[in-house]
Specification:
The structure is a single chain. 45% of the residues lie in helices and 14% in strands. The protein is built from four helices and four strands. It has helices at residues 6-16, 26-42, 59-67, 88-95; strands spanning 47-51, 72-73, 76-77, 79-83. A hairpin with a 2-residue loop joins strand 2 and strand 3 (76-77). It starts with 5 loop residues before the first helix and ends in a 5-residue tail after the last helix.
Length: 100
Amino acid sequence: STQLDAEDTLRSVAASFGLEHEGLTKSSLLKNLEDFLAAAARQGKRALLVVDEAQNLTPRAVEELRMLSNFQLGSHPLLQTLLLGQPEFRTTLQTHPNLE
């Protein structure tokens, strides 16, 4: 669901990967995600997050998803994110240039 606030979007990502997410602080949630993604990378796996209906995301939620791209193992990103949405999503990106 893309009708979530920024932190709930992170919880949804964690849940999608089968991670503990309920009742955790944001920092614990991010640590769980980073640990999971790093473990997957060490096993030679690549993680892909696909978000459909991205035009419904709030700018803060898009920023949280963008920040997940900062997780790296050495110089290799741990997560690839694919945002799919209607043309209205361009408006979000254009009015918040730090998201591009």
